[in-house]
What does this fold into?
Amino acid sequence: MKLTRILAAIAFAALSCLASAKAIEAPLVNDKVLSYGAWSSNQLTPFFGKTQFSIATAGKYDITFDLTPAKGYENSSIASLQNALSSLTGGTLGESNFSNLGSSSYHHTFTMDLNPGKYSLYLAFTNQNPWSGMLNVSVAPTAAIPEPETYALMGLGIVAVLARRRQLKRKAQI
It folds into this structure.
């Protein structure tokens, strides 16, 4: 009986943590890119279907841009690159510009507090030699890292459970 109560409490705590997970409706861009000098996400088709997404729950989100060269294009360097995240109602939220990048691949993650609403992403780059590869864009809730207070409360809960158990054992012996 006691073990059942403890297991039920643990299950309840785990379910309440899972219930706080953030919902998101976001397409993942996973498209082949071919550039003979300049490319932008405006060239994706359908443009609005692949560059806009909605956030249903406020919170911290990771927006990740990845450019990976195809086999045979590893030596084609990206000269300059710009990526941005914009709110469709509030303007640009985050932007990165790089010149003389000198690499054939690119990875960047924005971590931002986003409110429910519609957002748009943008990526553009220039290159001197033809470049071909994959563009991957993902939007996901940032993994929560428990704060020290959370660990302290969990520790107090375990101590309370053990103390109660010990108290009940003493009563049973009397």
In short: Confidence is low (pLDDT under 50) at residues 14-23.
